[in-house]
Amino acid sequence: MKNKRFSQIDASIPTIRRLPSYLNVIRRALEKDLKVISGTVIASELELEPIQVRKDLAVTGIVGKPRVGYDVKELKNAIESFLNWDKKHKAIVIGTGNLGTALIGYHGFKQNGMDIIASFDSSEDKIGKFIINVETYPMDKLPSMVKDESVDIAILTVPSENAQEVTDTLVNAGISAIWNFTNLKLKVPKDVLVLREDLSSSYAVLSVCK
After folding, report:
1. Distance CA 158, CA 153 (A)
2. 174 labelled as ligand-binding?
3. Is 57 annotated as a binding-site member?
4. Residue 131: count of CB within 10 angstroms of its CB
5. Distance CA 154, CA 94 (A)
6. Does 113 carry a binding-site annotation?
7. What 8-state DSSP symbol labels residue 69?
8. Where in the chain is the domain with CATH 3.40.50.720?
9. pTM for the whole thing?
10. Local confidence pLDDT in tens for the 210 residues of the chain
11. Is 69 annotated as belonging to a binding site?
12. CA 106 → CA 20, 55, 159, 162, distances in Å?
């Protein structure tokens, strides 16, 4: 997952992956009208070591007060800013099967700045239909949509046998960040970021370790 942009960020992938969990705890604290929260409280809720939490939060640039903790609003803003979740990111979904439909319907994305503005499919019976309020377009409309709407992220949920071909189309259209839900390892230029979500690997852990 390394590319030129990530190499400029002073944070590890595990740290970045933990930050949303911290943010969830902090948002709940805000709902309870708490003004300050300590790293120890956050660590306790997530079953982590306090020193790990403090190290992770330090990458956002915020510093807690000894024996007091962090200002809750400031900490929320610091994490959202570090994750770029305080900015709007336009996204498209390619493939409107069960998984693509479920992702379009997930409201948590919009809360964190990602706005799915369109979906694409090669099946004629899906073209022109809406999932929630997201219209499905034919694949030949993809390049112009990416350019005209300045799309940031493509979410790929197509069959694996079509994944590389669709990826080539996305790269040629100017997409530089792909969220890959297929089981194919995509071949992309070095300046294109691909994050693969392997659902079968997660299920394997659940089925063996339950």
Report:
1. 15
2. no
3. no
4. 18
5. 7
6. no
7. B
8. 89-205
9. 0.86
10. 444 444 446 789 899 999 999 999 999 999 999 999 999 999 999 999 999 999 999 999 998 888 889 999 999 999 999 999 999 999 999 999 999 999 999 999 999 999 999 999 999 999 999 999 999 999 999 999 999 999 999 999 999 999 999 999 999 999 999 999 999 999 999 999 999 998 888 888 888 887
11. no
12. 16, 31, 21, 24
Q: Which residue has the tokens 């709007």?
A: 88
101 is in an annotated binding site: no
- 99 among annotated binding-site residues: yes
Tell which CATH classification among 3.40.50.720, 1.10.10.10, 3.40.50.280, 3.60.20.10 matches the domain 89-205.
3.40.50.720
Phi and psi at residue 172, to the nearest 5°: -65, -25
**Tokens coding 145:** 């949509």
Query: Residue 113 corresponds to which tokens in the numbers above?
Result: 């700045």
Delimit the CATH 1.10.10.10 region(s) of the chain: 4-82
**What is the Cα–Cα distance from 48 to 40, expressed in whole angstroms?**
9
Counting every residue written for the chain, the total comes to 210
CATH architecture designation of domain 4-82: Orthogonal Bundle (1.10)
